[in-house]
TrEMBL record:
Residues 1-151 form the N-acetyltransferase domain. One of its GO terms (molecular function) is acyltransferase activity, transferring groups other than amino-acyl groups. The lineage of its organism: Bacteria, Pseudomonadati, Bacteroidota, Chitinophagia, Chitinophagales. Keywords: Transferase. InterPro entries: Acyl_CoA_acyltransferase, GNAT_dom. This is GNAT family N-acetyltransferase. The keyword Membrane does not apply. The keyword NAD does not apply. Pfam families: Acetyltransf_1. It comes from the Bacteria.
Length: 151
């Protein structure tokens, strides 16, 4: 539920279309989330034992622009009311530590180009833009920035 909530808040600028709902029902299904937790690729942040944020990694992953293999930070979601309190920073540091422990030369991620707050957050943490790639849903396509940081 946390991932769906943050996803709608971030990307549902025009509401929830059928395409958007289909994407969310598969990407954030209970089965998929349980798999991610079991595979130890989902790190969570809590407040009073309640979920407030999560970060997902994919490894090994190949960066679509510089073709280096390494770890992708595929999600970093924090509930709005906890933004600006260091939760995202702590989750990102955890993901970076996991990637560095594996000997990865870089951590890379994609961020929606129309999310200036997220882009600015990553840039403050030392990530630099490599270029853009399309993010395709069923019909629509959105522009994502690819950012990377040497570890």
């Amino acid at each position: 539920m946390l991932l769906q909530h943050v996803y709608i808040d971030t990307y549902g600028l025009e509401g929830v279309s059928p395409e958007f709902a289909n994407f969310m029902s598969t990407r954030f299904s209970v089965e998929r989330i349980n798999f991610l937790i079991a595979a130890a690729v989902l790190t969570v942040a809590t407040f009073r034992e309640n979920l407030i944020g999560a970060a997902e990694i994919v490894r090994p992953a190949r960066c679509p622009l510089n073709r280096l293999s390494g770890t992708e930070s595929s999600k970093l979601y924090v509930l709005e009311r906890f933004c600006g309190q260091g939760v995202g920073y702590a989750l990102l540091r955890c993901v970076e530590a996991l990637a560095a422990a594996d000997g990865d030369p870089q951590l890379w991620l994609e961020v929606w180009s129309r999310n200036p707050r997220a882009v600015a957050f990553y840039e403050r943490q030392g990530y630099r833009a490599l270029g853009t790639v399309p993010f395709r849903m069923e019909v629509n396509c959105y522009e994502n920035l690819v950012l990377a940081k040497a570890l």
